[in-house]
Amino acid sequence: MGRFPTNDRLTRAGIPYESYLQNIGRQLFYVVSVSYITIYLAIIFLIVANTVLGVQFLTQQT
After folding, report:
1. What is the pLDDT of residues 2-53, one digit of tens each?
2. Are 8 and 2 in contact (CB under 8 A)?
3. Neighbouring C-beta atoms of residue 10, cutoff 10 Å
4. Within 1-62, where are the H helices?
5. Cα 31 to Cα 37: distance, rounded to the nearest angstrom
6. Cα–Cα–Cα angle for 17, 19, 25, nearest 5°?
7. Backbone torsions φ then ψ of 55, nearest 5 degrees
8. Which among 1, 8, 34, 38 counts the fewest CB atoms within 10 Å?
């Protein structure tokens, strides 16, 4: 038996589990990826909005 009997019992029972550190790593990955996606979508929105405003401005110039 190892140092952590709960881990040994879960492994022998065939129950899938993840450790506390693995869970923290997964949550950190989710937070960072959502942050990057939010920034990316904000930049895309600004580009699209700027293009729409520019086209409206240029079509009014006669």
Report:
1. 577 887 888 888 888 888 888 899 999 999 999 999 999 999 999 999 999 9
2. yes
3. 13
4. 5-13, 20-60
5. 10
6. 115
7. -65, -40
8. 1
| pLDDT given at position 62 | 61
The CB density around residue 5, as the number of other CB atoms within 10 Å, is: 9
The residue type at 30 = Y
**pTM for the complete prediction?**
0.64
pLDDT at 1 over 60: no
How far is CA 62 from each of CA 46, 51, 56, 57, rounded to the nearest angstrom?
26, 19, 12, 10
Asked if residues 1 and 8 have their Cβ atoms less than 8 Å apart, the reply is yes
Read off the tokens for 22.
């693995």
